[in-house]
Every structure is written in structure tokens, then in C-alpha cells.
Amino acid sequence: MARLLIVHHTPSPHCQEMFEAVVAGATDPDIEGVEVVRRAALHVSPAEFLEADGYLLGTPANLGYISGALKHAFDSAYYQILDSTQGRPFGAYLHGNQGTEGAEKAITTITTGLGWIKATEFVVVSGAPTKEDREACWELGATVAAQLMGE
């Protein structure tokens, strides 16, 4: 069975709404053969990155950058996963009340360094998530999970 690892930092109600929509998409009953593992960014282990076949990353954009928690997750695992996770698909969702460009660039830089493959466009939300934003998060989760079916 394929494994999808959702690594998230969810400190606010808006991030929680987005996280729940991503999980709902990834665990849709039509997606079979994919185990979805959810881990807070401060608690994910390098082994969990290694055991996963694909990734979803969730973070607020704090001061224009990814959360310290998500950065810590990568700092703690980077060299252990560098050569072993190349070619795996990933997606990301970000919430920011101001510019998110720095956070988007950070995720792109980190995942490019790891050799991960962007499965779909990032979902970026400012302010309270709308119905359309939650649907985009659902689609993000479903898209990455569906790519892992049959692995």
C-alpha cells in the first residue's frame, strides 16, 4: 500500500480549515490503496519521510516565510532523506495574511533540492478560506493521493 505523508503546521483556525479539506480529499473513498499519515511538523521523523511515497506540506506564511516548524522538519531530516526520496510527488498549501512569495520560494527550493516532483500547483490562501479555497485544498489532497494509487 502506498503511503502519503501530510506534514503540517496548523496554528490557526484558517490553517485548520485548509488541513481538514486536504485530509478529506486525500482520504476520499474513491482513492484506494493509499494510507494517509498526518504528522505535525514538529513531530515528524526522518523515518516517516523515508517510508512515504508522496507528500503534502501545509504551512502558514509567517513574515513571508514557511513556519519555523516546517523548516525544522526539513532541517532535521534533509540529509537523511536527500538521496532516498528523489522523484516522489508532493503538493503544498499555504496560508498567509500578507505576502506568501517567500514561503512559496522556500518550499520550491527545498523540494527541488530533494528532487521531489510538484504534483500540482500550490494552494495559497489569504484571509479566511472561502468555499472555493476549501475545494482547492480538497482537490490538492485528492490529486496527490490519486497519483499514488497502484504503487
UniProtKB/TrEMBL annotation:
A GO term, aspect molecular function: oxidoreductase activity
Superkingdom classification of source: Bacteria
Pfam family, one: FMN_red
Domain called NADPH-dependent FMN reductase-like: residue spans: 49-126
UniProt cross-references to InterPro entries, sorted A to Z: Flavoprotein-like_sf, FMN_Rdtase-like_dom
Coiled coil feature spans: none
Protein name, UniProt field: NADPH-dependent FMN reductase-like domain-containing protein
Species this protein is from: Gordonia araii NBRC 100433
